[in-house]
């Protein structure tokens, strides 16, 4: 048995493990899933807010498109990825086409083996059946309640009673606030360094390069809540000044460095050329000195720490 376990673990892909955490609404939190995924070895966790019955999952679609060969997509449970067998198998097929793999922590799934693929289809069918049974039981309960002259749901909310609506709103705000405060240490220092000199798009891009998944809209909403609760300076919400082309390039260079601090000036220049980014003077070829100028500006803006900026220049010179 031990030999078999060792054989199967030796065959496990050695690529990245990328977590995917989904909840149904913005008021729900992904923290519990994130903790479990990071404990399982996921350095990056992608968050998604969307109904389980819907296939519209922008974050999941982007993850599947960009996942690398040998990488593994990890979820806590199958129903966090999909609620129907067809959608589940569609995602697995897309991963397989990219030589990527799938793992569910709570289910015996390993798509590197035929047995694992069979288990995947069986468990997917069971998950779909369970959801269908829950739906049938819910409908039966509503029908029975109606036959007795009762209406489903919270009477206070159904009747739009102010006190009931106020309780629901307060609970939603409390859940949202708890989620914001629990994660603020991961992203708020970056916001404080960059606002209001940089746009929310720029800040979201830098945070995403560091593995913190935010959209500009959600980020602004979170900061607005912190300001309203007197937990952040109102100046963070001031309108950003018009951006010069070099400001965007500076933020881009800072983001490239944040994703890989070991890159030299020449390597960063090569990445900008592959992205077809024009130099401040409109050229197509980047020189290390141009990168150094942008890094110096990023350092003065607080996007890159002094010690880190010096290490980049030192590595390039060496």
Give structural notes.
The protein is an alpha/beta fold and 318 residues long. The protein has three domains: 2-122, Resolvase, N-terminal catalytic domain (Rossmann fold, 3-Layer(aba) Sandwich), CATH 3.40.50; 158-237, no CATH class; 245-317. The chain has 14 helices and four strands. The chain has helices at 2-11, 31-39, 58-66, 78-81, 85-97, 114-147, 155-158, 162-194, 200-209, 216-228, 245-259, 265-274, 288-300, 306-317; strands at residues 17-23, 44-49, 72-75, 101-104. Strands 2-1-3-4 form a four-stranded parallel beta sheet, sandwiched between helices. Helix 2 (31-39) links the parallel strand 1 (17-23) and strand 2 (44-49). Helix 9 (200-209) crosses helix 10 (216-228) and helix 13 packs antiparallel against helix 14 (306-317). The longest helix has 34 residues, at 114-147. The radius of gyration is 24 Å and the shape is flat. Mean pLDDT is 77; it is low at 1-12.
């Amino acid at each position: 048995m031990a030999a078999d376990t060792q054989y199967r673990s030796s065959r496990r892909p050695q690529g990245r493990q990328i977590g995917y955490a989904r909840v149904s609404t913005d008021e729900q939190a992904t923290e519990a899933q994130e903790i479990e995924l990071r404990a399982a070895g996921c350095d990056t966790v992608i968050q998604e807010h969307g109904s389980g019955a819907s296939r519209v999952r922008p974050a999941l679609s982007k993850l599947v498109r960009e996942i690398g060969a040998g990488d593994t997509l990890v979820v806590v449970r199958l129903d966090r990825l999909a609620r129907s067998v067809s959608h589940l198998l569609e995602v697995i097929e897309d991963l397989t086409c990219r030589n990527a793999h799938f793992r569910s922590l709570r289910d015996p799934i390993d798509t590197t083996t035929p047995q694992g693929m069979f288990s995947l289809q069986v468990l997917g069918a069971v998950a779909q059946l369970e959801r269908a049974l829950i739906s049938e039981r819910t409908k039966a309960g509503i029908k029975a309640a109606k036959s007795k002259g009762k209406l489903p749901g919270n009477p206070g909310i159904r009747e739009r009673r102010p006190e009931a609506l106020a309780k629901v709103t307060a609970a939603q705000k409390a859940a949202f606030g708890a989620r914001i405060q629990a994660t603020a240490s991961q992203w708020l220092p970056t916001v404080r360094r960059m606002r209001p000199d940089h746009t929310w798009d720029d800040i979201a891009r830098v945070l995403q390069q560091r593995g913190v998944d935010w959209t500009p809209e959600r980020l602004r909403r979170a900061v607005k809540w912190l300001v309203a609760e007197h937990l952040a300076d109102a100046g963070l919400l001031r309108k950003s000044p018009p951006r010069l082309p070099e400001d965007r390039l500076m933020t881009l260079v800072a983001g490239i460095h944040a994703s890989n601090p070991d890159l030299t000036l020449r390597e960063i220049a090569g990445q900008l050329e592959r992205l077809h980014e024009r130099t401040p003077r409109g050229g197509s070829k980047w020189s290390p000195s141009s990168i150094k100028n942008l890094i110096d500006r990023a350092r003065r803006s607080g996007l890159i720490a002094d010690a880190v900026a010096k290490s980049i220049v030192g590595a390039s010179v060496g």
